[in-house]
Amino acid sequence: MPDNRKHIVAASCLKGTAANFYDGLAGITEWNVAGQLANIQLKLTLEAQFQSETQATHYYNQYLVLKQGTAQIVDSYANRFLELRSKIDPNNNIPVAHIVLKFV
Fold it and tell me: Domain residue spans in the chain?
């Protein structure tokens, strides 16, 4: 999909607080284009609004205490693990060996 349409598609998927926030924005014309102003890019604007230190700490604490429950299937545990890992390490900076040890 061309970059000039990604922000439109992404905006159509927003719900609740994020949708209300988007409705109050003006001048968003891109999704995430290198070299462009941050205030016209939807991805960077949403990240700045919704990724706080408190949220990051909350997700990190959830990641640290995450364990597979006795009645929990592996797929469910793996999905939650991957979801939390992507929130605490969006740039994949954690060494693979650490990820494997945490998962097991």
Answer: 3-50, 53-103
